[in-house]
Write a structure and sequence with these properties.
By secondary structure, the protein is an alpha/beta fold. The protein contains 28 helices and 16 strands. About 60% of the residues lie in helices and about 10% in strands. InterPro entries: Biofilm_reg_signaling, EAL_dom, EAL_sf, GGDEF_dom, Nucleotide_cyclase, Rev_trsase/Diguanyl_cyclase.
Length: about 800
């Protein structure tokens, strides 16, 4: 029940209580007769709602229904009473139907209590329950006998039969509810009774007392219609309904699921309440020694028998626990005895299994890494001086793709098939093992020279690369092999494995189904790669990076129009490394994003300085890698630099590779619109080197096409190359895009480009990449003004100190 609904219900209860109490206090028979059925119906409604929202899988769930039907019967009785009293004008007390409905209220309450008791008591200790029933019912009935029946059998019989069968049923029901609830409450030794539960059973308990009191005053002819007795009737029903309301609001399971919390065994806590009974009897009817002794005797006998039962229960529990412990010990001893007899066989079996699991890969049934390395050490130690050990380190190509696409179960089947093929390829003095994942190793002990090792590697690749058919799927696996030979390439098993692994890495870099024989040049390249990776892992590696700048000119006028920023790594040995040597590794280690942002900031600061200092409008070109375009940090850095008040976005030219331009139309559109919205120009770098598609040129207005250096190199000696360059220039002019030629190294290349109509050039012929201070001194300062124009003579070119035929490393 929601909180708002609960509060509304409470307000309704309070308002009705005040109105009804006022009517009773002012002896307004009319309003009491009108309001009584309304109150009965409220009680019926809330108890019915509790029934609807209770757990229907529990049998005691129907208690709520019986309680609600009791209130409904009282509603019919009070309603008929009001009709006969107000409308018909007859005496309602003479109407048997009204008496029947009042009696049915007692019946439904009695059945509800009996249903609840039947479920509660079956979980309790029966001997103690019988003792509680005899004692507490005796005390309660004795108290009722003294107070209600004036110690008179005649009064009891008359009161019991005053209204015939209806009074008999009603009083019996009252006594059952009165005594039953008292027994249940006083018998509980364990468990916390919820508040709503107290209201429900308390309301029924006081209803039974009220009904007994009604027959008492009726018998003594002191009953007054619509007096405190009728007020008590209605209040007890509302008390039961209020308990149901609390159950709906605060207890989702209702009391019917909490019976396991209650128990009639344990420490006494409530029995002394029974001492109030003789005191109440003395106060109401006076002191009679015999009655007092009867009360005291019942209480004393109960305490004595209860102590005996509690002691018996504890002894029984101890005995049961002792038997349980003995049984457990006997089972343990029997198990130990049996296990001792089976230990030798089990240990032997386990040792065999352990040996198998420790030496064999359970999936492929090949030897595992541990066994292979141990065997390799032993083989090297026992190797004859004229023998070699050829180690073939193998790795499957694109195996991860099979796992990700078809699932690991299919991947396992592929590994099993490859393992079987490798096992069939073994011969005497050879061992094959799975190192883990999709890596395998094959070792051959004997006289195997370099050429024979190559043939063996080719045979292994041929065997394993044959198509694999699993169910309805066909796989074409690839295999790369790294080969290392003991003792030519290594003197220890660890170094032999390491060198084979290095060779494998080199083979994989060449493509699929490749092999590589170890030599020390491969090792040197690997060491250099490791050096670069260690450099990139340093937090301050930016201090070793530096930007070089290569000038860009327009032709034929020879005017300096800008420069391209090219990154260099100045190693601690003062060796300059170009991007070709470390950018790919930076992309693999995800350092390219940090490097790219550093280049962007450095280049922007430099172009701001040069253009503002010398009053120029030069353009700075920077390269953006594909991985940078996938990073949000790049776009944030672009937004940051545009906030610089002295920076003009037109000073920056973003160079993207042709592969990015052909990646996807949606991605290219996003990239293009971003740069254009900032105001930067966009160039296509290395145009003509890939499998170009010119369709994207008509959809996006690029600012420049940078003709790749291989095309520039071929156009002088190859007529077809010249025609390709000419076609690119004509295409660019047709769609209104400038062209710039990269890597111009000779005067002849410059002349051909001028003849073909190329607008811009850069290359060693006009200026190699150089640090900022050299660039500024040569092209921007007062001393370098002569170099801002190419001129028409070769004097300017001589100042660049170009060696004829030299190929620049850019």
């Amino acid at each position: 029940m929601k909180k708002s609904t609960f509060i509304t219900s409470l307000v309704l209860f309070a308002v009705f209580f005040i109105v009804y109490l006022t009517s009773v206090l002012f002896l307004s028979t009319f309003w009491v007769n009108i309001l009584s059925p309304i109150g009965d119906f409220l009680a019926f409604f809330f108890l019915l709602m509790t029934f609807v929202k209770s757990d229907r899988t529990h049998p005691v769930y129907y208690c709520w229904l019986l309680f609600s039907l009791a209130c409904l019967c009282f509603f019919f009785a009070d309603g008929l009473w009001a009709i006969f009293a107000i409308i018909i004008g007859a005496d309602p007390a003479e109407v048997s139907l009204i008496t029947l409905f009042y009696t049915m209220t007692n019946v439904f309450f009695t059945f509800g209590i009996l249903l609840f008791a039947s479920y509660q008591y079956k979980h309790w200790h029966m001997a103690k329950l019988v003792l509680d029933i005899v004692t507490f019912s005796g005390i309660c009935l004795l108290l009722a006998w003294i107070i209600l029946f004036n110690r008179s059998t005649t009064d009891f019989l008359f009161l019991f039969t005053s209204e015939g069968v209806f009074s008999v049923i009603s009083i019996l029901g009252d006594l059952i509810c009165y005594v039953g609830i008292a027994i249940w409450y006083l018998s509980i030794r364990k468990g916390n009774i919820p508040l709503y539960f107290r209201f429900v059973l308390g309301g029924i308990f006081f209803f039974a007392l009220t009904d007994l009191y009604y027959y008492y005053v009726l018998y003594h002819h002191i009953y007054i219609v619509d007096s405190s007795v009728d007020f008590s009737y209605l209040m007890t029903l509302l008390l039961v309904a209020f308990g149901g309301l609390l159950a709906m609001r605060f207890d989702k399971t209702n009391f019917i699921n909490s019976n396991e919390l209650y128990s009639n065994t344990g420490r006494r806590s409530k029995e002394l309440i029974t001492l109030l009974c003789p005191i109440i009897a003395i106060i109401v009817q006076g002191f009679i020694l015999a009655e007092f002794l009867m009360f005291i005797s019942l209480i004393v006998i109960y305490i004595a028998l209860d102590s005996y039962f509690e002691s018996s229960i504890k002894n029984k529990d101890l005995l049961k626990r002792e038997l349980q412990i003995n049984n457990e010990l006997e089972c343990i001893i029997a198990d130990r005895t049996q296990k001792l007899s089976e230990t030798n066989m089990e240990l032997h079996k386990k040792n065999k299994e352990l040996s198998y699991l420790s030496n064999v890969d359970t999936l492929t049934q090949l030897y595992n890494r541990r066994y292979f390395l141990k065997t390799l050490d032993i083989s090297i130690a026992k190797l004859d001086s004229d023998q070699t050990i050829s180690l073939f380190y193998m790795d499957l190509d694109r195996f991860k793709l099979i796992n990700d696409t078809y699932g690991h179960q299919m991947g396992d089947q592929v590994l099993i098939e490859i393992s079987n093929r490798l096992a069939r390829s073994t011969c005497e003095n050879s061992t094959v093992a799975r190192m883990g994942g999709d890596e395998f190793v094959f070792a051959y002990i004997g006289l195997l020279d370099h050429n024979s090792a190559i043939e063996m590697a080719k045979k292994l690749i041929s065997t394993c690369s044959e198509e694999i058919i699993i169910d309805d799927y066909v796989f074409n696996p690839g295999l790369c092999i790294g080969v290392s030979i003991y003792p030519h390439d290594a003197q220890t098993a660890d170094l032999l494995m390491k060198n084979a692994d290095i060779s494998l890495y080199h083979a994989k870099s060449q493509g699929t189904n490749k092999f590589a024989m170890f030599d020390f040049s491969i090792n040197k390249r690997t060491q250099k790669r490791n050096e670069i990776e260690l450099f990139l892992q340093k937090g301050d590696f930016f201090k070793d990076l530096k930007l070089f700048y290569q000038p860009q000119f327009s032709i034929p006028d020879g005017k300096l129009i800008g420069m391209e920023a090219l990154i260099r790594w100045i190693s601690n040995k003062n060796k300059i490394m170009t991007p070709v040597e470390f950018i790919q590794i930076a992309e693999e280690t995800d350092q390219i994003n940090e490097i790219g942002i550093w280049v962007l900031k450095e280049a922007v600061e430099q172009i701001i300085d040069w253009n503002t200092t010398y009053g120029q409008n030069l353009k700075m070109g920077i390269n953006i890698s594909p991985k940078q375009l996938d990073s949000t940090n790049l776009f944030k850095a672009l937004n940051d630099v545009t906030q610089e008040s002295r920076f003009d976005p037109q000073w920056l030219d973003i160079e993207i590779t042709e592969n990015i331009a052909m990646d996807s139309e949606y991605r290219l559109s996003q990239i293009f619109n971003l740069f254009k919205s900032i105001g930067m120009s966009v160039s296509v770098d290395d145009f003509g080197t890939g499998y170009s598609s010119i369709s994207y040129l008509k959809h996006y207005t690029f600012d420049r096409l940078k003709i790749a250096k291989p095309l520039i190199d071929s156009m002088v000696t190859n007529q077809a190359g010249k025609q390709i360059v000419q076609a690119i220039i004509l295409l660019a002019k047709t769609i209104g895009i400038n062209t710039i030629a990269e890597g111009v190294e000779t005067q002849e290349q410059l002349d051909v480009l001028t003849e073909l109509g190329c607008e811009q050039i850069q290359g060693f012929l006009l200026g190699k990449p150089m640090p900022a201070d050299e660039f500024e001194a040569l092209f921007l300062s007062t001393q370098g003004e002569a170099f801002q124009s190419l001129g028409t003579t070769n004097t300017h070119l001589a100042n660049f100190s170009l060696v004829p035929g030299q190929v620049p490393n850019i």
